[in-house]
Specification:
about 350 residues; TIM Barrel; two-stranded antiparallel sheet; alpha/beta; single chain; eight-stranded parallel barrel
Length: about 350
């Protein structure tokens, strides 16, 4: 059946400006990290993206190695573009990244010009696009001169293969240097993508201030702490969901301290008339310096629940103070750069 988007999809959506750039993003963006790979059902991904677009989500976040297997999330999204969204491309912001391992050998990961340029070429082929809207250096690589990495990003923009460039998981110091190096190239650092949630608040200690000063946007990923800030871990049996799967969700995340804090936060959410997931997303968006919260979804119903977070983004001072009692660092940050440079 031909997809016809909802004509009222933009009604009531308050887009947020990305730093001091001309780009605006929806308050909630859809990521493809865990649920758009070749092992997932295509029609489920299709239903999720259609529903997201119908509800005003215009930003879709990918990376070269999202799957599994690597590259398959971009292949899935490329098929969606061809089948459903080929006439709607100009209404979409599509981002991709490179840095983590993508193929064997010395050039399959890193931040060298060789890796970044080659990886983007592959991403564009899988997506069936001439350009992406945002291209990120996916992670800091201290072994690679930042001058080379930023020169590669500048080249990619000049070639028209990306409209904007960003970085992910950089420290405040590395972010500032990246900004300066790109500035010398005549290119703006548009956006930073750090992990940020009620159980992972490191960006409040320097990075948000740095981004605000430089005029760089911020899109927080893992706003739900990989599912820890959802109802699935509120019961007595917590060995469910991604805790069983291993990977980036570690068993130690389910410490008694974390679980007690999650249960207390869930009670606050209940008093606000929200699910824990909705409050967690709203909390990330409480700060005007955050451009967008990046979420994933395994089903249309899960997507709808997350998107409904925007129905209540206001927090009373007393609520924020109560949340601060339990929104503690949970030892769940696997990505943040600790070293200065």
């Amino acid at each position: 059946m031909t997809y016809l988007p909802d004509k009222k999809r933009y009604d009531g959506i308050e887009f947020r400006r990305c730093g001091r750039s001309g780009l605006v993003l929806p308050p909630i963006s859809l990521g493809t990290w865990q649920n758009f790979g070749g092992v997932n059902a295509f029609e489920t991904a299709r239903a999720i993206v259609r529903r997201a677009f119908d509800r005003g989500v215009t930003h879709f976040d990918l990376a070269n190695m999202y799957g599994p297997p690597y590259g398959s999330a971009e292949e899935t999204f490329g098929e969606l573009l061809r089948k459903d969204f080929h006439q709607l491309r100009d209404e979409m912001v599509i981002s991709s990244k490179a840095g983590y391992e993508m193929w064997p050998g010395p050039y399959g990961s890193g931040a060298s010009k060789k890796h970044l340029v080659a990886s983007l070429e592959g991403s564009l082929k899988r997506l069936g696009l001439e350009y992406v809207d945002i291209f990120y250096a996916h992670r800091p690589w201290p072994e690679v001169p930042m001058e080379e990495t930023m020169a590669a990003l500048a080249q990619i923009v000049r070639q028209g293969k990306a409209l904007y460039v960003g970085v992910s998981s950089f420290s405040p110091e590395r972010t500032r240097k990246a900004y300066q190096l790109l500035q010398r190239e005549g290119i703006a650092l548009t956006i930073h993508q750090p992990s940020y949630s009620m159980l992972n608040r490191h960006i409040e200690k320097g990075l948000l201030g740095t981004l605000d000063e430089l005029g760089v946007g911020c899109i927080g990923f893992s706003a739900l702490a990989q599912g820890l800030l959802t109802d699935k871990y509120l019961g007595s049996d917590v060995a469910t969901g991604r805790a069983k799967e291993g990977g980036t969700f570690k068993r130690e995340f389910l410490s008694e301290e974390n679980l007690q804090n999650v249960r207390s936060l869930a009670q606050i959410a209940k008093e606000r008339g929200q699910s824990l997931a909705q409050m967690a997303i709203a909390w990330v968006l409480r700060n005007a310096r955050v451009t967008s919260a990046l979420i994933g979804a395994h089903s249309v119903s899960q997507l709808d629940e997350s998107l409904d977070a925007v129905k209540n983004l206001e927090f009373r001072t007393a609520e924020l103070a109560e949340i601060d009692r339990f929104a503690k660092e949970g030892g769940i940050d696997l990505w943040r750069e600790i070293s200065l440079l």
